């Protein structure tokens, strides 16, 4: 499933003012046509696999740190 300009516009709407969308890697939890939960992963064609891995690793590290903070309180 390829991203459309409309999809990228919606993602750009999530950015802080002044930021410009260049590339993205996303992981999406969704329901498929059978009602089963699925995990979908996408990245823009211009984003190298190592860049996507780095971005998602950074996001995972940030979430892990936040969870540790929550557990500490």
Automatic annotation (TrEMBL):
What is this protein's record name?
A: Uncharacterized protein
According to its UniProt entry, this protein's organism is Embleya scabrispora
Q: What is the lineage of its organism?
A: Bacteria, Bacillati, Actinomycetota, Actinomycetes, Kitasatosporales
């Amino acid at each position: 499933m390829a991203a459309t300009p409309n999809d990228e516009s919606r993602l750009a709407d999530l950015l802080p003012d002044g930021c410009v969308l260049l590339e993205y890697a996303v992981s999406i939890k969704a329901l498929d046509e059978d009602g089963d939960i699925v995990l979908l992963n996408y990245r823009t064609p211009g984003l190298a696999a190592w860049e996507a891995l780095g971005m998602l690793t950074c996001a995972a590290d940030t979430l892990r740190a936040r969870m540790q903070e929550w557990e500490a309180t």
